[in-house]
Amino acid sequence: MTILSAVAAVDETPIDRYLEAQADLTAVERFSQRHDAETPPLNVRYYRDLIPLTVPQPGQQYAFDVDLDACTGCKACVAACHSLNGLDDGESWRSVTMLSGGTTIAPFQQTVTSACHHCVDPACLNGCPVDAYEKDPVTGIVVHLDDQCIGCRYCTLSCPYEVPQYNKRSGIVRKCDMCHGRLVAGEAPACVQACPNGAISIAVVDVAAVTVATTERGSLMPGMPPSAITRPTTTYRSERGRVQELAGPRSSPTGPAAAHTPLALMLVLTQLAVGAFLTDLVLRTFVARSTASSTRAFDAVIAAMAGVVALGASVLHLGRPRYFYRAVIGLRHSWLSREVVAFGAFTGLAVLYAAAAVLMPAGGGTLAVLGGLVAATGLAGLACSVMIYATTHRSSWRAEVVAWKFALTAAACGLATVAWAAQVSSRPLGRPAMLTLAALMIVKMAGDAALVVPQRALALSPDLRRLTVGRFMAGFVGGVVVPLVLAGVAGSTVALVGIVLGELLERSLFFTTASPPR
Amino acid sequence: MTSPRRRGGALTAELVREPGGFGLGQVPARLKPDATTSIVCGFCSTGCSLDVHLRGGVAVNITPTADYPVNRGMACPKGWEALTPLGAPDRATTPLWRDARGRLQPIGWEAAASTFVDRFRAILDAHGPESVAFLSTGQIPTEEMALLGALAKFGMGLVHGDGNTRQCMATSVVAYKQAFGFDAPPYTYADFEESDVIVLVGSNLCIAHPIMWERVCRNPHDPEVVVVDPRATETAMAATQHYPLRPKSDLVLLYGLANILISRDWIDHDFVDAHTTGFAEFAAHVRDFTPDRVSDASGLSVTDLDRFAATIHAGRRVSFWWTMGVNQSHEGTRVAQAIINLALLTGNIGRPGTGANSITGQCNAMGSRLFSNTTNLFGGRDFGDERDREDVATTLGIDAARVPDRPSWAYDQIMDGVADGRIKGLWVVATNSAHSWIDQLDARDALRGLDFLVVQDMYTTTETAQLAHLVLPAAGWGEKEGTFINSERRVGIVKRVSHAPGEALADFSIFKVIAEAWGCAEMFADWTSPEAVFGILRRLSRGRPCDISGISGYRMIDEAGGVQWPFPEGATLSGDNERRLFADHRFHHPDERARFLFETPHPVAEPVSSAFPLVLLTGRGSSSDWHTRTRTAKSAVLRSLAAPDPYVEISPDDAEERALRSGDWATVTSRRGSMRARACVTPTVAAGQVFVPMHYVETNRLTNPSFDPYSRQPSYKSGAVEVRRAGRRRGHRR
């Protein structure tokens, strides 16, 4: 009855025709193109005054210059960076935050656009184990070499401004290059082109002057880390003169930071390995010389295995694990490279030592020399681990805090491992060792708890509550209750599992509740 | 020693940039276009032009058009990301029918069309022509709106249909119509650059219309920028003067300013005498609005009022602009007219840099004002006027008896009809009532009670589509052709540059499918394509104030960079392609005079009380969010530019009283419902007020359904709430 059914007799229904028309993209044929392929960039007229006419002279470099009075929070710079650089879904090298402050009578808010600050002393570059960063000698732009990167993500922790972002799809970090190719061609970077108010420009700055200017103010903007760390080159200008009234970011807390689970595993296991080896050494040297030879091989094998698993975890943590060997390139400046070398040596030597201990139980001289090397490389590795985090300038990762955490983890896990090994070898360490273990764990957890208190809102948020509770439950049961009340193989096994699990959860909290750089 | 480094390779190649040609500068090499075309953005009413980068005819990237008279090479984040929402996985790809178990199941277009006809016909047969209505949108091209309006009213015989434009600019329509004799926003964007005083009332331009703010920034006259807003918004921060008045004291303030101007004789007598009526009555009316009284009501000091009035007086080219702070008010029409009155008093109209200027919301709200055939008959005509009906019937070649003799119910009246059962069938096109309608929980209850709800949308996941019996899959912006009219009356063009997914069809085609299924296709035999309909609209506009008969077609619009109405036959474009109205001071009333219109201010519908002591303000939260986020939430970049959780801005005093710190979860409760939101403690919100962005689905659980009596626009920016620290459980209703 309807027209639909009437025309159905013909081959094609109106709906078919509409669907066909829908599939026909006719924009170019139907509408003239306003510009041909040869037309030079038309936006030049808008950004001509926003980019320098000359390249930097010696002692100078390019820098972002932001007119805060003109930044009104439209965030076009963020979207334009994404589109004009062909970045992945959600990826942009610029961000905008809102700071607020002032008083009820004279409220003040300020939107702040930021990207890489192309620092004079870039922490990303200094910390990179594979030298995937370079600071262009002429422009001062801090460039990331994407194909050199192995995806270790250390720069995402070491940059105080959290500029480098990990790209999961490609397994590497990517970051702002100030659109240097555009600058070479006389075009403005994406963000500069896109700001409707001309708030972002590129300036040529004197490196020495930048350093002075930023250190006098302490930081680039309220709430940002001290400029002394990396000497960022961005200038934030305001003639309103109200920047100092700003209290800090207005937005609500953004939830937990990245968990870096393989790193947590790697840290705990390397510490367990070094701890077990040293505990064994100490016990044999000072306490229980007579039981030494029979458990030495067992302890050594466990420590070596833990080291191997830890190294495996750290390799798997890489975005591009097959290029793990590049991690030693930055030995001269990167604590991460040094850690890799130290733990690599430790693990290798520990394997040798374990083999030697198994094959020649009486080989006193060789074992003593090897043992000394294992101990030295292990301690060096632990120290490197501490420095990796201590140099990120995060308040929750202060050197003394990290050193104390890692040392106690090594001591507790090491003792628990050796105690377990002794128990299954039917040569239990005895009550004093168990009391020592419980004491170590009480001290460790008291310290951990003290660190969690200032971060309790985050640590007890729905995202992390189970992690926090689990950390203390596992540590308390495995590290305190069981060593005091439960003897035998079962007791030492539960103690070891509980302690290691507790430390793994603690290390997960170490990453997820890390405070921003200050 | 330098270590060997990999400077090239597959990963480096991914990010290589190359000259893009076509005036673009460098672009990502892998997205280098082989052609480009320009197309007007489909989000807000600014009407920016975007260059679509095409490869093989298909859009792969977007940059703002460098030489378009509106946006001059710039766009806000929504424009930059305009293509992303088209690729979302929850696009509607086939008609869906809700089965007996309540699940949406695919059905073909033939079945969908016959279901549509059978169900609506059955309701109409049983309950009469007022029992089925439609709710449309300001987001689709004018040609589609016109076809819908003609199909529904002339073809299907419906009486009632309205659009979400009711929520955004109905107030301005009525204000202009009464004051000027026609709904005619008089300005062109160049006025932002020509003014020496710019007064923004209830407008957070920096966030809501960033590209208009760009034009303010390009003003070479070092203008005074005056912001009237209860909040210290981004725009207030960028202004030279900010008047943080108490919410809804705007009418009193504007009358008080008029009183100061009149009492100091700071008025343009020549203009007032020659081109207005009602001045004497208006002067008498505002005499009672003494500075002391206004100060008491607004919270502004008498000195502030003096300074404000003196600023207006000192300006030689003063422009007044308003947006939703005025439109979404229980007395918005009179507030808008109070702004118009200031422009009339001071002769600030018709000259460069002047005007009483309503900034519209949606990309094609202005198209709907003229051609949606809902409240007004085509071309700004009156359904109640027999001559207008004849006029339209003759132009369209239809029987005049098919033209209803009364305007449609407004959105709120339609929702009331849905709630009380007078309306049993509803057709919702490209809007999301179950999210955006005021007092949303009641609105959802009402929609659930419908016998038949059809939702025509790009996405199956909108809150309203989730309630539908039938979902019709629509092609979106960029997947179809047509024209939009922007805030400054500029007709711009959208083109088909991307494939619609599956069997999704342009709304235009869907309306044609329905017309054929309904059996009224012959009536639309000439309505063959959007451009053919544009020709019909040209004829319908002839001789009207909105005459566009001189626009020859899409190609002319495309080549000119948009054309502002009026553009009657024989008109020519100026060099800068910027034109304003009323240069001749002849308004559209029969006597060619503008009207002073005024009324005693009314209290808000829901004052604060001890149980609900805080005034709830709502509005745009981020430039990256659009309305109910059906599109903007599909882009990861846009999502990252807005707070992920709902939030409530609260003053330090009120927060302290409630032991709230920034980031804490709070419960915001009104008499109608409650929501969980993160506290955002900021002095930019005054004590006694809170602000919640409108984009979160929970927000309209709180809002109070009160309406301007003339425009029927909902008052989204006033309600009484309480804020408490949240417990563990989610907030629940009542």
Polypeptide structure, described:
Chain A has 518 residues and is mainly alpha-helical. Chain A folds into two domains: 46-249, Alpha-Beta Plaits (2-Layer Sandwich); 261-512, Formate dehydrogenase/DMSO reductase domain (Formate dehydrogenase/DMSO reductase fold), CATH 1.20.1630.10. Helices cover 51% and strands 10% of the residues of chain A. In chain A, the strands form four sheets. In chain A, strands 8-1-9 form a three-stranded mixed β-sheet. Chain A has a three-stranded antiparallel β-sheet with strand order 3-2-10, with no helix packed on it. Chain B has 734 residues and is of the alpha/beta class. In chain B, helix 3 packs across helix 22. Chain B has a seven-stranded mixed β-sheet with strand order 7-6-18-17-16-8-9, with helices on both faces. In chain B, strands 23-27-24-26-25-28 form a six-stranded mixed β-barrel. Chain B has a five-stranded parallel β-sheet with strand order 12-11-10-14-15. Chain B contains 26 helices and 28 strands. The model of chain B is unreliable at 729-734 (pLDDT under 50). In chain B, strand 6 (96-98) and strand 7 (104-106) form a beta hairpin. Helices cover 31% and strands 18% of the residues of chain B. Chain B has four domains: 23-82, N-terminal domain of TfIIb (Single Sheet); 96-168 and 404-564, Rossmann fold (3-Layer(aba) Sandwich), CATH 3.40.50; 172-358, Dimethylsulfoxide Reductase, domain 2; 614-725, Barwin-like endoglucanases (Beta Barrel), CATH 2.40.40.20. Chains A and B meet through helix 2, helix 3, helix 4, helix 5 and strand 2 of A and helix 1, strand 2, strand 3, strand 5 and helix 3 of B.
Which structural class do the helices and strands of chain B define? alpha/beta
Number of strands of chain A: 10
The CATH top-level class label of the largest domain in chain B: Alpha Beta
Please summarize the sheet with the most strands of chain A: 3 strands, mixed
> What proportion strand of chain B?
15-25%
Q: What does the largest sheet of chain B look like? A: 7 strands, mixed
* CATH topology (fold) name of the largest domain in chain B: Rossmann fold
CATH superfamily caption of the largest domain in chain A: Formate dehydrogenase/DMSO reductase domain
Number of domains of chain B: 4
Helix content of chain B: 25-40%
Average the pLDDT over all residues of chain B and give the rounded result: 96
Order of helices and strands of chain A: HHHHEHEEHEEHEEHHEHEEHHHHHHHHH
Mean pLDDT across residues of chain A: 90
User: Biggest sheet of chain A, strands in spatial order?
Assistant: 8-1-9
The end-to-end span of chain B amounts to: 72 Å
Largest interface: A-B, 93 and 114 residues
> How far from one another are the termini of chain A?
76 Å
DSSP strand tally of chain B: 28
Shape call of chain A: elongated
Strand order of the largest sheet of chain B: 7-6-18-17-16-8-9
